[in-house]
Amino acid sequence: MSGEIIGTYAVAICLLIGAGFVTVGVIGLLKFNDPMTRLHAPTKVGTIGIGMLLLASMIHSFTFGQTSLHELLIMSFLFVTAPISANFIAKVNIHRRACETPPEPPRDDTWSTLNSPENGRSTSGDDAEKAA
Amino acid sequence: MERAFRWLLPHPFLTILLAIVWTMLQNEVSAGMVVFGIILGIIIPWSTSIWWPDTPQSFHVWRMVRYSLIVLYDIILANIEVAWIVLTVPNAKLKPAWIVVPLELIQPEAITVLAGTITLTPGTVSADLSDEGHSLLVHVLHTDDPDAVRDEIKTRYEARLKEIFA
Fold first, then answer.
1. What total number of domains does chain B contain?
2. Which of B98, B120, B133 lies at the smallest CB-CB distance from A47?
């Protein structure tokens, strides 16, 4: 019996923390006014928010009988895919020049996103700015 | 013998990982499902090996486990830090910055892991790779000292990844 009570409290605490972090992520998404800084709030705060919600689900399933490990899989898939979507959004921002132009890389010609055929494989951002 | 092994199992770790994931998806361990998982683990890497020709030469599993724990700890700290910035720092005082991380890693797998780690940890998002893969472009949410962030990425993550894929 007491095990169930402890489990319930643990689930409640995890849900609260998770919901809190997700809320902060949403606030960040609404508050920041530049697409690049906006990207930060959901990618990071979201991972732990959803992680805590899944942990709550796992504790619940262990306390009340039906053990479930699917949550671990969801978490690992999330941690693997979140950086990729963030990377793609960042690439779109750079490509559309919705953000400050990044500094030149020290050893190579340009960033791979800026190195597009319509810029004539330009070696710097100058041509691109003229085109835009 | 070794060539046959290489041909059948181009990515041994991927095979093990796929078998484990399949078994976990079933939510119960039964012999049939483990065998089916192993079959999937052999077929999938074998049929996709054309698109992934170079296997990492070596991979230290225990160092990777230690690295994952460090990253997990950093993710928790990062979340609290970013949540604090979101709630307390007004937009006008926010100091976002681009930083360029020169890479010493060469293997694409190692660079992918590094980029993923950077995106998941303190206020940084990896945005782009230079066209020949020698540097990584990172966006920082709020920093007073971009060079310190770059040095931390290099010592804390890149040095460890170099040992893992060494």
1. 2
2. B120
pLDDT tens figures, B49-82 = 778 777 766 778 888 889 889 988 888 887 888 8
Q: B81 and B148 in one domain?
A: yes
Identify the residue among B113, B135, B141 best suited for mutation to test binding to A, counting A beta carbons within 10 A and taking the highest: B141
Residue B56 lies in a domain: no
d(CA A96, CA A59): 44
Nearest to A45 among B83, B96, B126 (CB): B83
pLDDT of residue B50: 79
- Torsion (CA) B61, B65, B70, B71 in degrees, nearest 10: 90
B80 assigned to some structural domain: yes
Whole-prediction pTM: 0.80
Q: Is residue B40 domain-resident?
A: yes
d(CA B39, CA B104): 37
Q: Which domain holds residue B154?
A: 61-164
Q: Does residue B114 sit in the same domain as residue B138?
A: yes
Q: How does strand B124-129 pair with strand B135-140?
A: antiparallel
